[in-house]
C-alpha cells in the first residue's frame, strides 16, 4: 500500500513538469535573453529574426531566461 501511494504521488508530480528542449531568441548580437514561447512580450522589441534554438545553444551564447517568463 505504501509503495503504491508513493508511486501515485511521483507520477502525479512528474506529470506537471514541463521539459524545455527548445526556446526562442532574437537573432541579434545584442540579445541577452531566451524565451519559452514565441509570442513572449519580451520579443516584441526584436528588430531581427526570431529563431528557435535548443536551450543548450541559448545558454552557450550566455543568454538568460526572459524576466517576463520566470
Summarize the structure in words.
A two-stranded antiparallel ribbon has the order 1-3. It has a two-stranded parallel ribbon with strand order 2-4. The chain is α+β, with helices and mostly antiparallel strands and 70 residues long. The protein is built from two helices and four strands. Helix content is 27%, strand content 20%. The model has no long low-confidence stretch (mean pLDDT 87).
Percentage beta strand? 15-25%
Q: Please tally the β strands and state the result.
A: 4
Distance between the termini: 38 Å
General form: elongated
Radius of gyration: 17 Å
Write out the strand line-up for the largest beta sheet, numbering strands in chain order.
Answer: 1-3
Note the total helix count. Answer: 2
Write the layout of secondary structure elements.
Elements: H1 2-14, E1 22-26, E2 33-34, E3 50-54, H2 55-60, E4 64-65
Parallel strand pairs: 2-4
Antiparallel strand pairs: 1-3
Keywords:
70 residues; two-stranded antiparallel ribbon; two-stranded parallel sheet; 27% helix; elongated
Summary?
Helix content is 27%, strand content 20%. By secondary structure, the protein is an alpha+beta fold.
Amino acid at each position: 500500500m505504501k509503495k503504491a501511494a508513493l508511486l501515485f504521488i511521483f507520477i502525479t508530480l512528474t506529470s506537471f513538469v514541463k521539459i524545455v528542449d527548445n526556446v526562442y531568441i532574437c537573432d541579434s548580437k545584442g540579445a541577452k535573453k531566451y524565451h519559452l514561447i514565441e509570442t513572449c512580450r519580451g520579443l516584441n522589441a526584436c528588430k531581427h529574426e526570431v529563431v528557435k534554438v535548443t536551450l543548450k545553444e541559448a545558454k552557450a551564447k550566455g543568454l538568460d531566461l526572459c524576466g517576463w517568463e520566470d
